[in-house]
Each structure stands twice: as structure tokens, then as C-alpha cells.
Design a protein that fits this description.
With 361 residues, the chain is mostly beta strands. Among the domains are: 120 residues, YerB-like (YerB-like fold, 3-Layer(bba) Sandwich), CATH 3.50.90.10; 131 residues, YerB-like (YerB-like fold, 3-Layer(bba) Sandwich), CATH 3.50.90. The strands form five sheets. Strands 3, 4, 5, 7, 8, 11, 17, 20, 21, 22 and 23 form an eleven-stranded mixed sheet that branches. Strands 12, 13, 14, 15 and 16 form a five-stranded antiparallel sheet that branches. The radius of gyration is 32 Å and the shape is globular.
Length: 361
């Protein structure tokens, strides 16, 4: 989402440098040939004369610096480990009970929860550190092109899209990989009903489609934050995306917020909790998209991620109030506290709940 980047997420210790200084002295003496007459008949007062080419030369080598190795770049999407290779892939994933348990969702670096239509929520999961198989893949929305363009020319995986959504995706810098177009990496899980059975193999997609790797999108990572001492306690997070209640509970043993649905912890298909160290609730302008209307007559929601507004960051079981801003569709999002200082995210990944202005939190 937003404006100018605020600098690097993590500063790494630089390699030590030493300067070597080598001095070499080279002396060359050329001795001229003696001028002499014939042996036995030479004049006794003849003296050797130095050759005009005789010289003494001294050279000094330029100081040298040992080669240094640049510190590895930290993953800007998690703050953990080195920056991963390969393209970034964003996947539209179902966020209803019918689509659970989601396959591969626990491996995502960033998980956005956004409004779809009829008050329902849907997820956009961003993968860079891992490329698992993912289910249930659902359709794209027009606002996804705006949201995801801050990541660069990445891949967007979806099952289809109504209204102008696919047209907007095709016109954007993003690379759409769409199930309805019979593109690479898709299959159906025959043990589950449609439309909740579309699977994408992100390893196959990554190998087949050339796209951008990770870059900074506004998250600044820090293990500690002095603001936490005075911050309000927040062992649970409750908000609303559309008319859907969205919840998280802080687990001290995991040091993560676990997603909940009606009080129950949400787990992935492998049994792992869907959990991240951070929950960011971002307040946005949400408008109806009349070009994309479902069978019940509900227009899709267009969530504006360019602009500015309020945020609340939850980390370490505490809450910190702040602001967000993003100046253009290609710019990253800037997150600050109310005093204008950068918000610091706990390393390990983030949930971002995109809620309407005035939503409870």
C-alpha cells in the first residue's frame, strides 16, 4: 500500500576493513664501461666514467583494501532470513467455512483480509519464502490490482474474475495466472465441492512465469519496540471486514496472533495454526464496484489502498495506534505511529485486515 519507503527494515553489521600498505624499494645501478687503451699501453691516469644511463629508482605501491562481502539482504516481507529467490506470488483464497481448511495458507508471508461482496471476506495471500500447493483459489477483484501493484511485477493467481476485474488485471503491471484461462499449475481436489476445490501448485507457477522478486512494500522489522512498554494490552483482536467478524488471539507460546472464526482457532489443512506475529488493521475507503455484481445482485467491494487513513498495529500482545499513507499505485505504504515515527513490525510476517472507515477494533 503506500508512499515513500522509510528506509531499510533491518541494519546489518558491516564487515571489518583493514588497509594494507606495502612498500617496495628497487635499486638499479648501471655501471658504465671503462674507457681504456690497449692493455700494457694505456695511460695510467685514465679513470672510469659513469654511464649516462646509470640511475637509482624507488617505487611505492598504492595502499590496497582487502575485498569485502556484502551482508545478505533480509527478507523485506517477513524480516526473517535472507531475501528469497524467485518470483512473488499473490493468491486469492476463500475465507468462508466452506473453503476451510485452507491448503498452504500457513506458509504465506503476508495475508490480506479484504471485503468481497455481500459483506463476505476473502483473502489475498502473498508467497515468497515458500511456494506450496494452495487451496481454495477464488476469483480476483478490481481492487486487487491496486493493492498488489506496490509489490512490483508479481504473479497473481486466481480462479477467474467478474466485471472489469480481469480487464483491470491485464492492464496492470501484474502477471495474471487464471484457472479459467487454462493456465499453468492448476488442478481440482475431487474430494471437495466446487468452487472450493481449485488448487494451484505455486512451485510450477514459479518455474513457468517470469516475474519480480521481493521488494520493500512498507514493513519495517524490529525485534524490540520501546513503545510496547506503555502500549495497551491486546490479548485479542476483534474487527469487521464488510459484515464478517474477523478475530485473532495472542498465543504467548507461539509469540503469534492466531486467526479465529467465531471463537475457534483457524488451522491449515496440515493442522498448523494460521498465525503471524503481527495484525495490522487498516482503515480504508470502500466503494461498490457496479461492474461486478453477483447472482444475488450484490456489487463487489472496491477497497482503496492508495490514499491515507488510520491503522492499529497489534504485536507482542499490545496495540499501537498509527497512520498509513500511499501516494500512488506503484508506491509502497508508509506506516507510522500518531507522532509520525515508523511503526515497527515483529519479524515473522503479518495479517493485514482491510476494513471500512469506522469499523470496530
Amino acid at each position: 500500500m503506500m508512499a515513500d519507503e522509510l528506509g531499510s527494515d533491518v541494519s546489518s553489521a558491516g564487515s571489518s576493513r583493514g588497509a594494507g600498505f606495502v612498500v617496495r624499494v628497487i635499486t638499479a645501478v648501471a655501471v658504465g664501461a671503462l674507457t681504456a687503451t690497449a692493455i700494457g699501453g694505456c695511460s695510467s691516469d685514465s679513470k672510469p666514467k659513469p654511464s649516462p644511463s646509470a640511475s637509482t629508482a624507488t617505487t611505492t605501491a598504492v595502499p590496497t583494501t582487502p575485498p569485502t562481502t556484502a551482508a545478505p539482504v533480509i527478507n523485506p516481507l517477513t524480516g526473517v532470513g535472507v531475501s528469497p529467490n524467485g518470483p512473488v506470488i499473490a493468491v486469492k483464497i476463500d475465507d468462508t467455512a466452506a473453503g476451510r481448511p485452507s491448503l498452504g495458507l500457513d506458509k504465506a508471508d503476508v495475508i490480506y483480509v479484504e471485503e468481497a461482496e455481500g459483506g463476505l471476506s476473502r483473502m489475498v495471500a502473498v508467497f515468497a519464502s515458500a511456494k506450496p500447493k494452495v487451496r481454495a483459489v477464488r476469483s480476483v477483484r478490481s481492487s486487487d490490482s491496486e493493492l498488489l501493484s506496490q509489490y512490483g511485477r508479481i504473479i497473481v493467481v486466481a480462479s477467474g474474475g467478474g466485471g472489469n476485474s480481469l480487464h483491470d488485471l491485464d492492464r496492470s503491471i501484474l502477471h495474471g495466472v487464471i484457472f479459467d484461462r487454462a493456465q499453468v499449475g492448476f488442478s481440482r481436489d475431487r474430494s471437495r465441492p466446487a468452487p472450493y476445490n481449485v488448487v494451484s501448485d505455486l512451485a510450477k507457477v514459479s518455474a513457468a512465469v517470469k516475474a519480480d522478486g521481493v521488494r520493500k512494500v512498507g514493513f519495517i522489522w524490529a525485534v524490540d519496540d520501546p513503545r510496547l512498554t506503555a502500549a495497551k494490552s491486546a490479548p485479542t483482536v476483534s474487527t469487521r471486514v464488510g459484515s464478517t467478524a474477523i478475530g485473532f488471539v495472542w498465543d504467548p507460546k507461539l509469540a503469534r496472533y492466531v486467526r479465529t472464526d467465531r471463537g475457534q482457532r483457524v488451522v491449515a489443512a496440515n493442522g498448523a495454526p494460521v498465525a503471524k506475529p503481527n495484525v495490522l488493521v487498516q482503515f480504508c475507503q470502500v466503494n461498490p464496484d457496479r461492474s461486478d455484481v453477483d447472482v444475488r445482485g450484490n456489487p463487489s467491494a472496491f477497497t482503496k489502498s492508495v490514499g491515507s487513513g488510520r491503522v492499529v498495529l497489534f504485536r507482542n500482545g499490545k496495540r499501537i495506534e498509527g497512520k498509513w499513507s500511499r501516494r500512488s499505485i506503484g508506491a509502497p505504504t508508509v506506516f507510522t505511529d500518531v507522532a509520525g515515527k515508523p511503526l515497527l513490525f515483529a519479524p515473522g510476517g503479518t495479517f493485514v485486515a482491510l476494513v471500512r472507515r469506522g469499523a470496530p477494533v
